[in-house]
Amino acid sequence: MRRPNVICLVIDRLHAGYLGAYGNTWTSTPALDRFAAESFVFDQAIIDSPQLDLIYRSLWLGLHALCPQTCELYRDSLPTIFSNNGWHTALLTDETVVARHPLAAAFSEQVLIQASGQSEQGRTSRQVAAMVDDTDAAMFFTSAKKWLEAAKSPFLLWLHTGTLGRAWDAPLEFRQQFADEDDPAPSNSANIPHRILSKDYDPDELLEASHAYAGQISLVDQMVESLLEIVDGLGHADNTELVIFSPRGISLGEHRWLGIYDEDTYAEVIHVPWMARIPANICASGRSQQLIQPADWYATILDSCGLEYGATTLDQARRPVGKLALTGYGRSFLPLIRGQQSTGFDRACCLGSSGQTFITPAWSLHLASDNLPKPRDISEKPTDNQAPQRVELFVKPDDWFEVNEVSNRCTGTVEKMRGAMVEFMNACQTSKPALLANLPDELIDGSE
Question: Model's pTM, two decimal places?
Fold first, then answer.
């Protein structure tokens, strides 16, 4: 088997709702839209934690965020496996959390690109750039293109940029293109907002932030286009697996939060874009509504390259399981892409510091409190010293932004969702993959 190149482009804080490929009609993302048309697009990719270090454990070890640390002892990381099988592995990032991750040391080459933007929670005042080349994003993508121009096959190149969470510094015309004549003049500040909107907030306040973020997305889209031109121009395209996804979204007023807010687990943060362009000899382009999570990428990329791994065998990972979910330890979604499997990825769970979400094809259950019980105790009633849980239920996939809460009208569904979540969370605590019981039809198709 000819060993393919693998490029993973990870764009942190990329909001799925601002991409044309995911239904947005007013932003401008032609490069990402074209890439989606050439790729297999997952419409229901759900992260397992808003914490970047846990997300990368999932991606590089194939362990759900709920799996205990002891499970790490029985797994080889992605860069380790690729390196041991003859690939050159490289990590290029402008994010120190990623560069200093314990698993990052396994890459043969590690490059930390010094970012020019402010930190996510920074308060340094900055203005938009005068030219595209002066932006925070340009610095990262220029380094990535230079690496690709000198690359020798086969390679695993992992690219991670946190630019969308550092500075919205695209030149002013990038945000001006979205403003109508009667809209307020766009701000020239590159600072990312970090506040909660008042209940009676001025819509112009949110509009200004939306235009600034959309402008930044347009800039990043241009950068992606230039990167794709390098990949295609060097003749790598026909033997390169290229995936573009986001490890986290960003709050842009959906639940009154504006900016970086990872404590809770609403869709704007945990529902992320995920597109994989895989050589035609492996699979064709298409779309899927199946629920996938970061740990599944670990199994998938190894499966597509013919590599085996750790304590869980590929036979387990790619076995068609019908409505039974092989959970916690990453399942190859290559059978989904190839059309060999149409079910099995029917639930997802994300745990935040003050909220957690469990999702099935028909519903999203959101629990939040200041004192969440531990995974094994999630079904217990709160004690006197525990804050009561806020329980919310949303219809999926129709209620994309989770604005219509229906738990008071669907109490039976809430209990079934809670029970399925308990089973999922407990299964992740075991030392090996677990086959879960079939979900009730109501949680799959919304029927009673």
Answer: 0.91
